[in-house]
Amino acid sequence: MMPASANESDQRRRARIRLELAANYYQQGNYTVALDELRQALQVDPGYAAAYGVLGLVYRDLGDLDRAEDSFQRGLQLAPNDPDLNNNYGWFLCQTGRERQSIDFFTRALKDPLYATPAKPLHNAGICSMRVGDEAAAEGYFQRAFQVDPSNAVAMFNLADLYLKRRELERARFYAQRLLSTYEPTAQTLWLALKVERARGDRDGEASLAAQLRRRFPSSAEAGLLAAGKFND
Predict the structure, then answer these.
(1) Helix, coil or strand: residue 108
(2) Domain definitions of the chain by residue range
(3) pLDDT at position 3, please?
(4) Mean pLDDT of 5-24
(5) CB count in 10 Å sphere of residue 105
(6) CA separation (Å) from 6 to 3, 97, 112, 136, 154?
(7) Which residues lie closer than 8 Å to 181 by C-beta, 6 or more apart?
(8) What is the reported pLDDT for 4?
(9) What pLDDT shows up at residue 1?
(10) pLDDT tens for residues 26-53?
(11) What CA–CA distance (Å, rounded) separates 66 from 96?
């Protein structure tokens, strides 16, 4: 739901309703209707930055990267400090091979003290830092994401994986186990926790997680790696 303000104009109110509809259709994967609603929103209110932001997401998912780029840029021209726009454009840059450039936009998103989901640009910055080999920066971003949102699955998974690779096994175990206790296990989280227990030499813990992985996700790639004994993949 897009927030309404007390002094919202009738033009903006009508555009916002269209945008809310578009966002719902986008989340359902109904891109054709989402695009139609967004075009109508922008016909009503051509200066509506949030509509350009969602338009960028739709075009990105459709693989139309030029139109996605243009939409994000137009939105940021209208609202350069909008945290959602900055975060989403930053992620778009990271997905299109511009990882280092993306960090600046995640940082801009974090400048808004009222931003409801600061963990999102933080963990995105962590992922993009890892992609360019800046492990120290990535660790810092993931730690900050975890601090502001202790239920952040992306931060927990990546911290567990990072510390496992560094052989900081108790730290790896903390995040892997917290992730398993916070969310329903997936093949990926069970496999990560299993590898941590194996590295720690806890054979009982490893066996328990292996049994869960085989039982819950017998056809998963991770179960295949387990069967093949490929613990380093």
Answers:
(1) helix
(2) 1-80
(3) 53
(4) 86
(5) 27
(6) 10, 41, 21, 44, 36
(7) none
(8) 52
(9) 43
(10) 999 999 999 999 999 999 999 999 999 9
(11) 11
